[in-house]
Amino acid sequence: xxxxxxxxxxxxxEWSSTYRQLAEHPGRTDLRRRLHRLSTQVFFHxxxxxxxxxxxxxxxxxxxxxxGTGNTAERRDR
Length: 78
Known about the structure:
Elements: H1 6-24, H2 29-43, H3 55-64, H4 72-76
Helix pairs in contact: 1-2
């Protein structure tokens, strides 16, 4: 699995947590704003300046924010 900078991984975990909270409490403006801010942090992070990520890299990063997962091999088997 690819290694990501700590701040990028942390932003992705916060994004996933905020997304789940928003699903539980739709319409919360504060959560929508936070999700937008975190989306910007993740997508425009300096780590991606070298080149835009391959889709597999996005999946690996997203797996960091999923509770109880982190194994992309599980997704490939589906």
